[in-house]
């Protein structure tokens, strides 16, 4: 859990972890120099939370990488402080890792408002197996729904220069050497509100999209033909004012 001034929703997020039917977990909590009551709330939960504070406020994906330095378990899951897990999320995901070829697992998503009211919003169709081509068409993996083998982070980390596309970029990178699976049930609840990173940085989408497709081509050439569709969608979206 990476937290910067997340006290408003933090108890709900942490409680959703403590309510998991799968009990062999710990929370690596990164306090990104919060100035609210986030630290006090996190510490109040006791030894199941491993509290760490950054020396200064750092970008989101740099904070995720900082957290990974403290991982001791076999699997890593992410939960943003304004989101929630259903109680059987971890249990159902862990079961899919019995297949050693699976490197990461994700779930379906439900959406709520800042007050907790349900939003009728569809989630993109999910894919399993070798999904690089599919991910170039659309990112269908919500980071707070994901679980990843910890060993993967020994060779891949998040690119800290991203503030919006860091998770999509990471899924693309690891999808080229490991397979994915998913639980179709909506086991993660995403809270949509005006203070979210996505809403605060709408103008930066096209900048990060261009960086992503240029870096992707530099590394892979045109091995994955759907990169042409990705570029077209990025530039068309910018042209019509979507980003």
Q: How would you describe the overall organization of this protein?
A:
The protein is of the alpha/beta class and 243 residues long. It is 35% helix and 19% strand. The chain is built from nine helices and nine strands. Strands 4, 5, 6, 7, 8 and 9 form a six-stranded mixed beta sheet that branches. It is globular.
Q: Main β-sheet, in a few words?
A: 6 strands, mixed
Distinct helical segment count: 9
Distance between the termini: 28 Å
Query: Strand percentage, roughly?
Result: 15-25%
Number of strand segments: 9
Q: How would you describe the shape?
A: globular
Low-confidence stretches: none
| Mean pLDDT across residues | 94
Tell me the Rg in angstroms: 18 Å
Strand/helix succession = EHEHEHEEHEEHEHEHHH
Structural class comes to: alpha/beta
Proportion of residues in helical segments: 25-40%
